[in-house]
Design a protein that fits this description.
heterodimer, A: 386 residues, alpha/beta, seven-stranded mixed sheet, six-stranded mixed sheet, B: 295 residues, 10 helices
């Protein structure tokens, strides 16, 4: 009996030592995704793309860091679609799992609290999809945060693109906006749209709000109908837009709707169906009009998961691309070194286009596309450069 | 008609639709409170389960509207009875706080159970051909009319059952006294089960109609609607069936009208301030009676 026990103990010690030894050889990266909660499609795309990016690097033998090749290990945390759990997940990844850097969360209302933790714990966080300026900006000082980056454009740019599109391309002189006032992303882009649209000479005839989880928009939509707009802007998430469009149609509203990148999930089409045909939204990339770099990613993703990657997947993949590039050029696995090399990374050719971080800015310079919903599919319509 | 009147009529119609759905759910809160003086906080989630039953019946069984509605009500009623038998009955003589905590627990269980089975929001197909009529500028949809009429119909049936039938008399008797009424031969457990079944069945009907009006459903949809229905029941006078209906239409009306005539950002703030004032003026609700404790 004693012999067996001691054997067991020895084998445990050996295996323990082995894991500790192999742990030295890997690079731990964290992901915070909205796997459950109100936008699980976003979280799933983010995790899928993260796993694909890591699998590719590991299949090639790992990442070249200095003189040796190191495997990448992924730690995925669910934030359950909650702001407090996003912050808790960031804290856990940094202090318990000791990751080198974090990718995610995606929605601005989760990315902002997580970014506060990353900043105070001095760990790089790249959010793939959060377009609200506050994510990378320290509100108190008005200066960019040192450790928080993003792989997407920001709302002041997107709002401007949409205002121009509505006023010049759709020739709408009067616009109405309905947005979620309790969500950072929706509120931010609604305000930017309003400012830019008015600057162009358009008139905002209704600027209506609701709060997250509302399902009845009839009061606001009746008000909007009464104001007689030429176009209605819905900068809201894909799970709410179908309800808003259907209720508007039931109230007899016939003017077109436009949206922002929060529309970009294929779930929008499942939930909204034919009601959404003919409407436009701005987003990060068009799967049907992708650059050659992107084609391989799209094919690989489709093979692995049986669906076209949406913008969250593409941006997550690019966030990992940026991170791998930064670790490679840093030449060592060190949080501070990764931050320095990320902010000075030369032009990166990603799935969602070329991007580069300006000095003293954590927001990449890149262009946007406008997609049209045609026959139940997202179709490339036009490009918008910064 | 002048533009102002059209606008007002349209918003009244919106308020009626919202109010009727709140009313169907509020009835379940008020009936359970009436009979057990317990607040069944899992009720909002029974409503959510109802919406998912509707989804299952409509999508997987491919049923049309009427069978879907009946099956959903039946399924929700069964869930309601099961919850009572498994979770509340063993605690009937425990301190009331234990029952409330259990109810919260059951609610969280239902949410996460549904979440485990259906992590993605689901889309309920259009079970009814939706026509929209324009009556002098006011848009009326067939769906709106069906929801309002069906809810009112169910409320009249319930009112009849409670005030005009032997089962209703038994329910009211047990709500009055749980010690001596059973001695007269009223089956206590059966009547409590019937109460839960009716309340949950109505929540199932609400789930179906909600699913048709707002066809994107998710496991958390019951929380906010449940709270609002609970507030309706309290405003109307909890324990009183007609009060719950009145309270629900008041809440629906206030919510819509505040958003209609004030900036919509003020909606919940103004709406709930008004409701709090109402409670301050009438602490037992509009139709509620103070319960005097006999010593």
């Amino acid at each position: 009996m004693r012999k067996v026990l001691s054997l067991l103990l020895v084998s445990m010690l050996i295996s323990f030592g082995a894991t500790a030894w192999s742990a030295e050889k890997t690079i731990k990266l964290g992901v915070i995704a909205e796997l459950t909660g109100d936008m699980p499609a976003v979280g799933a795309s983010c995790r899928n793309a993260a796993e694909l990016a890591v699998k590719e690097v590991n299949a090639a033998g790992g990442l070249q860091v200095g003189k040796e090749k190191m495997k990448v290990e992924l730690v995925v945390e669910d934030n359950a679609g909650k702001a407090d759990q996003s912050a808790a997940a960031a804290q856990k990844l940094i202090t318990q799992d000791e990751v080198v850097a974090i990718v995610g969360p995606n929605a601005s209302r989760y990315a902002i609290p997580a970014s506060e933790i990353a900043e105070s714990e001095k760990t790089v966080l790249i959010t793939p999809w959060s377009t609200n300026p506050k994510t990378t900006m320290d509100e108190k000082t008005g200066k960019p945060k040192d450790y928080v980056f993003r792989a997407c454009f920001i709302d002041p740019f997107q709002g401007g693109v949409l205002a121009k599109f509505a006023y010049q391309t759709l020739k709408a002189k009067k616009a109405a906006v309905l947005y979620d006032v309790a969500s950072d992303y929706n509120k931010g882009i609604a305000e930017v749209f309003k400012t830019n649209y008015e600057k162009l000479g358009g008139k905002i005839v209704a600027f209506e709000t609701y709060t997250t989880n509302d399902k009845d928009f009839s009061a606001q939509l009746t008000k909007i109908k009464d104001a007689k707009p030429d176009v209605i802007f819905l900068p809201n998430y894909y799970n709410e837009v179908p309800l808003q469009v259907q209720q508007a149609k039931r109230l007899g509203i016939t003017v077109p709707f436009i949206g922002s990148d929060s529309w970009g999930s294929p779930e929008l089409l499942t939930l909204g169906g034919a009601d959404l045909n003919g409407y436009y939204f701005s987003t990060h990339y068009a799967a049907d009009n992708a650059a050659p770099v992107a084609k391989k990613f799209i094919a690989d993703y489709e093979k692995a998961y049986g669906a076209k990657p949406d913008d969250v997947a593409a941006l997550t993949y690019d966030a990992f691309g940026l991170l791998f590039g930064a670790i490679k050029s840093a030449g060592k696995v060190d949080r501070e070194a990764v931050r320095v090399s990320l902010s000075t990374l030369p032009d990166y050719k990603g799935v969602t286009g070329d991007m580069k971080f300006k000095a003293d800015s954590r927001d990449p310079i890149k262009s946007a596309v406008i997609l049209e919903i045609k026959d139940g599919k997202f179709t490339y319509f036009t490009n918008a450069k910064p | 008609m002048s533009e102002g009147i059209i606008y007002w009529l349209q918003q009244t119609l919106n308020a009626l639709q919202l109010g009727s759905i709140y009313a169907l759910i509020a009835l379940g809160y008020t009936m359970v409170y009436g009979i057990l003086t317990m607040i069944n906080f899992a009720h909002g989630d029974v409503f959510m389960v109802g919406a998912f039953f509707c989804f299952l019946a409509a999508v997987y069984l491919g049923l049309p509207f009427v069978p879907t509605l009946l099956l959903t009500m039946l399924g929700a009623a069964l869930v309601g009875v099961m919850i009572e038998r498994l979770a509340y009955k063993p605690l009937r003589n425990a301190p009331r706080v234990s029952a409330i905590i259990t109810a919260l627990g059951v609610g969280i269980f239902l949410e996460n159970f549904t979440l485990a089975l259906a992590p993605y929001p689901k889309n309920i197909p259009a079970l009814l051909a939706n026509a929209t009529w324009n009556m002098g500028g006011v848009s009326i949809s067939s769906l709106q009319i069906i929801i309002i009429l069906l809810s009112l119909g169910l409320m009249f049936v319930l009112d009849y059952v409670v005030y005009r039938t032997p089962v209703g008399i038994a329910m009211r008797a047990i709500s009055w006294d749980k010690t001596y009424v059973p001695l007269m031969g009223v089956p206590l457990d059966l009547i409590i089960s019937v109460t839960f079944a009716i309340g949950a069945g109505l929540a199932g009907a609400a789930g179906t109609m909600y699913g048709l009006a707002y066809p994107v459903i998710d496991p958390y949809m019951g929380i906010m609607v449940g709270w609002k229905a609970f507030i309706s029941a309290v405003v109307g006078g909890i324990g009183n069936i007609r009060g719950a209906m009145i309270g629900a239409f008041i809440l629906g009306g206030v919510e819509i009208m505040v958003a209609a005539f004030f900036p919509s950002t003020y909606r919940d703030f103004v709406a709930f301030t008004l409701l709090m004032l109402l409670i301050v003026i009438r602490p037992y609700g509009i139709l509620g009676q103070p319960r005097t404790q006999k010593v």
